[in-house]
Amino acid sequence: MLIVSACSNDEEKTSTKEKEPIQVKEEPVAVEVEESVSFPLTGLEADEQELTQRPVAVMINNHPSARPQSGLYKADVVYEVLAEGNITRFLAVFQSEIPDIIGPVRSARDYYIDLSKGFNSLYVSHGWSPDAKEMLEAGEADYINGLFYDGTLFWRADHRKAPHNSYISKENILKGADKLGYEVTAEVEPFEFLSKEDVENVQGEALNKFVIKYDNSATWQATYEYNQAEQVYTRYSGDEQSIDLESGEPVTLANVFVVEMEHRIIDDYGRRGLNLTSGGNAILLQNGTKQEIQWENHDGRIVPVKDGEVVKLAPGRTWINIVPDLTKSFISQSQN
């Protein structure tokens, strides 16, 4: 009995020992976090993993007979600059989206070409000045000109009269690029953008409405109003809101950058020359605030600078108004 008991106890110990859980050291599992990607010229989140659409810069008409325009609301960056007289034209730079209909398209000027080169854009216009013709024919930019493709790549809308009725489409821009052997993909240098928290903490003078004057007539003035609820600026030409002709969608902006630049008349026709390289005074408007800063030309792009550092943009679309004199052109209308 003593022997049986001892054996039983030994079996019990063995059984208990076998039932003890085995401790396995688990190695940490690396979890791959998919980084979000943003469009280089807006900082807005993108669906695509490769954002290689080459920018397309289109000369767009701003005569009252050309309003409202088509496709302008989808431009990532718009330069508004005087052409002849008190009339401005738009250089609309498309990268995140190229609209199905863009226009009315107008003729090239040399300084618009220089501005487009800051994005390595495919430059689209209908016509050109003598200086612009010389630049483009010398190969300073890849271009598609409606002078040579009127009725093919470009069409004339029947609801407007020439020269306010020339239009082009995304499809035809790509056809033209293919026909002329131009690249349609490129690595696009991104702007620097603020985080959402940084946007909310932008420092400056509260200002929710202002006017950019190119003339005493309201026809040639641009008014901007800040929508606090949607955190965007809306734009008006005269008393009419800037909207898309086809969709009715408004132009909405995260940044309005007003730049003082030397202008001079260069011929009897009233064409202008602009000093795009000197730098100078500027005003940047973001999140309902106004900052008095400087501008510089960085590799062809006009960028905001303060204390020698580039000022980051709020994510979204940007409008750059170039004016001869800030003190005469920038008018505050109201404050928060």
UniProtKB/TrEMBL annotation:
Domain DUF3048 span(s) in chain numbering: 41-182, 212-320
Species of the source: Metabacillus litoralis
Superkingdom: Bacteria
Protein name: DUF3048 domain-containing protein
Pfam families: DUF3048, DUF3048_C
SUPFAM superfamilies: YerB-like (SSF159774)
